[in-house]
Design a protein that fits this description.
Structural class: alpha/beta
Number of domains: 1
Strand order of the largest sheet: 2-3-4-1-5-7-6
Length: 215
């Protein structure tokens, strides 16, 4: 069995907030797979689907973010899930808004949910998908920022990020974390390179327009 965990806070008041992008990714994924995430167990709610002969469990901790490890460790122990089959999806302020990165391991950084999971598992050697939410403006409080909602100008970027993260889950389950990193992370780099290569042309076009105006 694979365990895919999306991090967030339970409650309508937290719907759509930056800190709940892990939940939103699981909502999107469960819709694609035609299941619901409603079974209450181990301090969370879960839903299961089968694909390519494998059983995949989607889970949302219901403990609030800071105690997410209770749910993750509980499910891992109860179902005897190997650590290499765990994938956690969460928001990351160290990535630009809409960026998606798959990692095989790592520290918790500033994320309290990840800190709780590592503490309860006693091991940081598990895969994760980080979804960038950007950093707050200088002088703004981090807690208010992560519990705030995305402005309309970021809706498209975050919708694309959720879909990209869902692709990462599918690759992880079918082909493993290495291929997920290669495909998801490299795709983003390729998009950035393509965007950078367009800039000189855009600049040239702008200069041509200015020249035409002056003539």
């Amino acid at each position: 069995m694979h365990l895919i965990v999306g991090l967030g806070n339970i409650g309508k008041e937290y719907d759509g907030t930056r800190h709940n992008i892990g939940f939103e990714t699981l909502d999107y994924l469960s819709g694609k797979k035609g299941i619901t995430i409603t079974k209450k167990e181990q301090h969370g709610v879960t839903g299961v689907y089968r694909e390519d002969g494998q059983k995949i469990m989607l889970a949302k901790p219901t403990t609030y973010m800071n105690n997410s490890g209770l749910c993750v460790a509980g499910l891992m122990n109860f179902y005897d899930i190997p650590l290499e089959n765990l994938l956690v999806i969460y928001d990351d302020i160290d990535l630009a808004t809409g960026d998606v990165r798959v990692r095989q391991r790592g520290s918790a950084g500033t994320h309290n949910g990840m800190r709780s999971i590592i503490q309860h598992l006693g091991n940081p050697e598990f895969s994760r998908i980080r979804i960038g939410i950007g950093r707050p403006r200088l002088g703004s409080e981090l807690v208010h920022y992560v519990l705030g909602r995305f402005p309309k100008s970021e809706f498209t970027a975050m919708e694309n990020a959720v879909m990209e993260a869902a692709k990462g889950v599918d690759i992880f389950v079918k082909d493993g974390v290495d291929l997920a990193m290669n495909r998801i992370n490299v795709r983003k780099k390729a998009d950035q390179k393509k965007h950078a290569e367009k800039k000189p042309d855009e600049k040239k076009t702008a200069e041509s327009n200015e020249l035409e105006k002056s003539e």
